[in-house]
């Protein structure tokens, strides 16, 4: 199929690039990190969303290679940022089927000279459907080197509270479907409140995704000690724009 061929060619030609969405400390408003979000600059199709090419890359067993390529670019970019600013990357659960995943990632960090303590990986609840023993082994290797692991899109998947304990996550990311509604709807705001206090109880820091306006920001600020990201702060931007943004902050 045509898209498949395009993705293979695009990978060879370096058409996949990292974009970055800022993550802020809601208390201070400071940028504390960026989430890398992949984009495909296709000469034929323009800028293509990962929602289109990630599932295909997973299907044709190219996700590992694609992700490595993007991570290498992102680590080089992030090496030019202030050393207190972290980098989050999304990892497909499929990548955790590779028993060498942790070793490969650590090798890349060494090769590029990026401190593991600045890297956070984001995994959705669907990793709980993988071989949990194998996933736990990978998590241990990553965590032993200082890489942190976030549970992404929290609240949307099939995870139960007991499963939350089955893997040693370092952070919960509240899915934006709950966050968007917090200022209007009581149920969502109760859910967000509950997730934040769950995080506190489990000593897991929390990030709220999808903050689009000041009302939502204020509602979340009141909950205390959480990080946020969303269009209110900034859309995902390419490496150059991100660098300029940081340079302006001094
Ligand atoms: O960039 P956007 O915000 O449209 O992202 C759409 C989806 O693609 C999100 O679920 C995001 O987690 C996922 N995504 C973005 N970049 C990557 C990546 O490099 N690897 C994987 N596995 N998923 C990604
Ligand atoms: O699944 P994950 O959380 O990794 O995906 C992030 C996705 O959410 C990307 O597609 C990104 O572009 C999108 N996104 C980030 N911030 C906002 C926001 O404030 N509003 C909306 N609608 N989407 C957002
Ligand atoms: Mn994410
Ligand atoms: Na998410």
Automatic annotation (TrEMBL):
Coiled coil: none annotated. It comes from the Bacteria. Residues 1-250 form the EAL domain. This is EAL domain-containing protein. It comes from Aurantiacibacter sediminis. The lineage of its organism: Bacteria, Pseudomonadati, Pseudomonadota, Alphaproteobacteria, Sphingomonadales. The chain holds residues 235 to 484 of 513 of the full protein.
């Amino acid at each position: 199929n045509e898209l498949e061929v395009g993705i293979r060619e695009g990978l060879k030609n370096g058409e996949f690039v990292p974009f970055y969405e800022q993550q802020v400390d809601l208390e201070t408003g400071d940028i504390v990190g960026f989430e890398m979000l992949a984009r495909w600059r296709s000469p034929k199709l323009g800028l293509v969303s990962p929602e289109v090419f990630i599932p295909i890359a997973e299907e044709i067993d190219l996700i590992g290679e694609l992700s490595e390529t993007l991570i290498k670019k992102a680590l080089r970019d992030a090496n030019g940022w202030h050393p207190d600013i972290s980098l989050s990357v999304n990892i497909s659960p499929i990548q955790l089927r590779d028993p060498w995943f942790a070793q490969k990632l650590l090798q890349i960090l060494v090769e590029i000279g990026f401190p593991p303590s600045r890297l956070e990986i984001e995994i959705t609840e669907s990793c709980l459907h993988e071989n949990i023993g194998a996933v736990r082994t990978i998590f241990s290797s990553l965590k032993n080197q200082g890489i942190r692991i976030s549970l992404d899109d929290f609240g949307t998947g099939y995870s139960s509270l007991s499963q939350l304990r089955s893997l040693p996550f370092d952070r919960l990311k509240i899915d934006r479907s709950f966050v968007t509604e917090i200022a209007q709807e009581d149920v969502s705001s109760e859910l967000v409140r509950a997730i934040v206090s769950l995080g506190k109880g489990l000593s897991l820091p929390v990030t709220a995704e999808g903050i689009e306006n000041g009302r939502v920001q204020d509602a979340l600020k009141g909950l205390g000690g959480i990080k946020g990201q969303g269009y209110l702060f900034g859309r995902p931007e390419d490496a150059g724009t991100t660098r300029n943004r940081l340079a302006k902050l001094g």
